[in-house]
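Students often ask what a 'structure token' actually looks like in practice. Rather than answer in the abstract, let us consider Isochorismatase-like domain-containing protein, a protein of 201 residues. Its sequence is given first.
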Amino acid sequence: MTYDPRTAAVLALHWQVNVIKPEGFFGAMLGEPVARSGVVGRAVRFHESMRAAGVPVIFTRFTVPVGEGGLVRNTGFMKAVGDAQEAFRPDAPGAQLIPEMCTPAEGDWVVDNQKLSGLAGDDLPAWLAERGIDTLLVTGVATNLTVEQTARHGTDLGLTVHPVSDCVTAATDEVHRMSLANLDLATAGCLSSDQVVALFA
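Now compare that with the structural description of the same chain:
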């Protein structure tokens, strides 16, 4: 099995300060396990490998513009970020991509939304369809939240979705493993970064 870089994209979810760094809004929950896992360095290397293969990298950010945009406070998660929305303004320090992910590259794109799925509440599905992209390789944090929600959403849209198993992580190892097990059934299957790179060699 091989994939065509012209019909694939990396969807890099929530690599932003509020999610990844200890000083971010979710830092108390995710900062330490993210650092311990080493996922940031692996994801950076994976993104670089995919760019070198001609695959675009699309970053999503969870932001809350003035007026709340498409935010709907229908879950505890959405209520919490709605109550702290100043920390999620598009220009707020916590909403920015982490420094490790900020090296600009031709073809990269940053998409903002107010949904847990990176494919909801934005123009991304139409953008992918217009370019004939039918395969998504998903990285990001957290495995059981935006990664799982987006991967399932993409599958329901008819896309071939592969969560990149060593480029995602969660608050606990157990939750991470359970979410990957779910995704292995609900998507085209989880693949390691090395396995994905080999598919584009």
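One point worth highlighting: Residues 5-199 form a domain with the Rossmann fold fold (CATH 3.40.50.850). Ask yourself how you might have guessed this from the sequence alone, and why that guess would often be unreliable.
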